[in-house]
């Protein structure tokens, strides 16, 4: 610890999606040198919803973006992300620090992946929200605007990425032994978390019947979906390989408890027993 370059980072997006919203503004500031990066990025669809404009004051007409009704220079997504990635190469093991970093991390990584922009030189990500709760205890709110006002006695525009990263950088400068207190999520771990989230979004609905009929706890269903396991494969596995096959499948997916296996086996057995009973009744009629 201590060899990383620390940068306050902020994004504004087209939606409040969990991971796949278009970035419309991206900013960062190196804490030691004050070197900054800032760009407005035209969303792929050329549209910014009015609710987002009402919050960020960013809008677009054709190829022209505006902030607070003033024209601003902008780039397409690929150019903006590529420029940001190249800028980060100036620093040794860059760590991107954001307030509520889980959101910014997912958005930035997913955008890099979507545009096939190299970013392996990023060391990791850190959450200033968690940091503030540790080093500034006892505050009623830990929103960035609130904690900045409480600690620095400043107001700023929390919905503009430039102002956001400048204020966050000022706040982080007040933290003694910052390198020792930052909890860094390394790049590969951040990618793993993003992949898990994407899997949950795709596959969790396939577990609805198990959760609704109380065969599986929702936390277990979410865990399984996060590994990329389609819930529809559970019944097929039981049909082909019985309880042993189901047990092997689930244990390979990090399920340690026997309860989910027992519950699912009993559930599928009751389905097949009912089907057999119905078929036998039809034959006897």
Please describe what this structure looks like.
With 285 residues, the chain is of the alpha/beta class. It has two domains: 5-182, Nucleotidyltransferase, domain 5 (2-Layer Sandwich), CATH 3.30.420.10; 197-284. 50% of the residues lie in helices and 17% in strands. It is built from twelve helices and ten strands. It has helices at residues 50-56, 77-88, 101-114, 128-135, 144-152, 161-172, 178-181, 187-203, 208-212, 218-226, 232-251, 259-284, and strands spanning 5-13, 23-30, 36-41, 58-61, 64-67, 70-72, 74-75, 94-98, 124-127, 184-186. The strands form two sheets. A seven-stranded mixed β-sheet has the order 7-3-2-1-8-9-10. Strand 4 (58-61) and strand 5 form a beta hairpin. Helix 5 crosses helix 6 (161-172) and helix 11 runs antiparallel to helix 12. The protein is elongated, with a radius of gyration of 24 Å. The model has no long low-confidence stretch (mean pLDDT 92).
Write the layout of secondary structure elements.
Layout: E1 5-13, E2 23-30, E3 36-41, H1 50-56, E4 58-61, E5 64-67, E6 70-72, E7 74-75, H2 77-88, E8 94-98, H3 101-114, E9 124-127, H4 128-135, H5 144-152, H6 161-172, H7 178-181, E10 184-186, H8 187-203, H9 208-212, H10 218-226, H11 232-251, H12 259-284
Parallel strand pairs: 1-8, 3-7, 8-9
Antiparallel strand pairs: 1-2, 2-3, 4-5, 5-6, 9-10
């Amino acid at each position: 610890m201590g060899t990383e370059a620390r940068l306050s980072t902020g994004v504004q997006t087209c939606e409040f999606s969990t991971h796949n919203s278009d970035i419309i503004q991206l900013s960062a500031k190196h804490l030691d040198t004050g070197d900054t990066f800032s760009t407005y990025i035209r969303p792929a669809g050329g549209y910014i919803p009015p609710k987002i404009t009402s919050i960020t004051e960013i809008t677009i007409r054709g190829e022209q973006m505006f902030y607070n009704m003033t024209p601003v220079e902008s780039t397409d997504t690929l150019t903006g992300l590529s420029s940001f990635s190249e800028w980060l190469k100036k620093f040794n093991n860059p760590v991107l620090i954001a307030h509520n970093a889980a959101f910014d991390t997912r958005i930035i990584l997913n955008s890099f992946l979507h545009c096939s922009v190299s970013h392996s030189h990023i060391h990791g990500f850190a959450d200033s929200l968690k940091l503030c709760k540790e080093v500034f205890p006892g505050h009623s709110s830990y929103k960035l605007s609130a904690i900045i006002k409480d600690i620095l006695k400043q107001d700023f525009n929390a919905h503009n990425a430039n102002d956001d990263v400048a204020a966050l950088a000022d706040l982080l400068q007040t933290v003694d032994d910052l390198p020792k207190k930052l909890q860094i999520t390394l790049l590969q771990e951040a990618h793993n978390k993003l992949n898990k989230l994407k899997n949950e979004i795709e596959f969790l609905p396939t577990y609805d019947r198990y959760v609704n009929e109380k065969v599986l706890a929702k936390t277990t269903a979410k865990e399984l979906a996060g590994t990329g396991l389609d819930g529809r494969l559970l019944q097929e596995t039981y049909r082909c390989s019985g309880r042993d096959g189901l047990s092997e499948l689930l244990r390979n997916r990090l399920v340690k408890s026997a309860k989910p296996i027992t519950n699912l086996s009993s559930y599928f057995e009751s389905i097949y027993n009912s089907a057999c009973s119905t078929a036998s009744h039809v034959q006897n009629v």
